[in-house]
Design brief:
Layout lengths: L1 H26 L10 E4 L15 E7 L4 E10 L8 E7 L3 H9 L4 E2 L5 E2 L4 E4 L5 E8 L10 E10 L3 E2 L5 E9 L4 E7 L10 E10 L2 E5 L11 E4 L6 E4 L14 E3 L4 E7 L6 E10 L2
Parallel strand pairs: 1-10, 2-11, 5-9
Antiparallel strand pairs: 1-3, 3-8, 4-7, 4-9, 6-8, 9-11, 12-13, 12-19, 13-14, 14-15, 15-16, 17-18, 18-19
Pfam family, one: BT_3987-like_N
InterPro entries: BT_3987-like_N, DUF7015
């Protein structure tokens, strides 16, 4: 009886090992039907969407200039680099925006066609390589700031490999950045109300040709919106704070120094009740 039990156990273990080996073969590179290359979009910036979004999203800002280039990256991912030239075709697909907006609580609208130009929408991932670029010509000096704009793209075909089910669509928010846009070391004076002698890192985000918005908000601490306007002729800076108001006439000491990329700003709440003295020193692009 003991011998029978031992035989049954040995048979079960052998069967289990055999099953595991077969499963391993099924997902391995040498398995029947295994795919060596998955074709997908590569990152054009840090992703702005989370795992709940079925369409990857990105955001790019371009210097306000007559020309700019969106470099749309397609790539082959897998255990091996491309074993042959892979021709990948991409199409503009702004119908993606509706679903993207719903999933991510955005309000993107298609970038007006007058503000970009499509060339060849095909790229070749060369044998032995992993990526290729499709350039999209942009006209950033024609961008407007009235709405958030984006472009959607879809990979439509590939001469080899399999098109990714998760990364064959992409939505890219496209905007402009003025000379004052960027990441800054932020500090307040001892005289500043609410947050004296504060030090932080903040972003100034383009909302107009010469206008930026403080992120994350008033004194880098509150949700109150604050806007700074730079006069490019005099470098004078004026402030807008819709929730608190700004006392007028505004302080003429507020200036932007283009040599050091520094904003020094003095302002008071609309009723004169609070004083704000702020300095922004440019670190780099946001």
């Amino acid at each position: 009886m003991k011998n029978i039990i031992k035989f049954i156990l040995a048979f079960a273990i052998t069967l289990n090992l055999s099953s595991c080996l077969k499963d391993k073969d099924l997902i391995g590179p040498d398995a029947d039907g295994a795919i060596s290359n998955i074709i997908e979009f590569g990152n054009v910036s840090a992703p702005t969407t989370g795992v709940t979004s079925t369409i990857p999203g990105y955001s790019l800002a371009f210097d306000i200039a007559p020309t700019g280039t969106l470099e749309l990256k397609v790539q082959s991912v897998g255990a091996e680099k491309a074993t042959e030239d892979i021709k990948v075709a991409v199409a503009l697909n702004n119908s993606l925006l509706a679903k993207f907006n719903e999933e991510n609580e955005e309000h993107y609208e298609p970038l007006p066609s007058s503000q970009y130009a499509l060339g060849s929408m095909e790229a070749t991932i060369k044998k032995g390589e992993r990526t290729a670029i499709i350039p999209i010509a942009l006209k950033p000096d024609q961008f407007t700031f009235d709405k958030p704009y984006a472009l959607g793209f879809t990979i439509t075909s590939s001469s080899a490999g399999q098109i990714s089910a998760n990364f064959s669509n992409i939505v890219i928010n496209i905007g402009a950045k003025n000379p004052y846009d960027g990441t800054y070391d932020y500090s307040t004076s001892a005289n500043t109300s609410l947050a004296p002698n504060k030090k932080s890192t903040v972003k100034l985000v383009t909302v107009g040709p010469n206008r930026v918005k403080l992120s994350p908000g008033l004194l880098a601490s509150y949700s109150n919106e604050v806007f700074y306007n730079v006069d490019p002729a005099t470098m004078a800076v004026t402030v807008e704070c819709p929730s608190l108001g700004v006392q007028t006439p505004q302080d003429t000491r507020s200036k932007y120094d283009p040599a050091t990329k520094t904003l020094t700003v003095f302002w008071k709440q609309g009723n004169g009740g609070r004083t704000f003295e702020e300095t922004f020193v440019y670190i780099g692009p946001r």
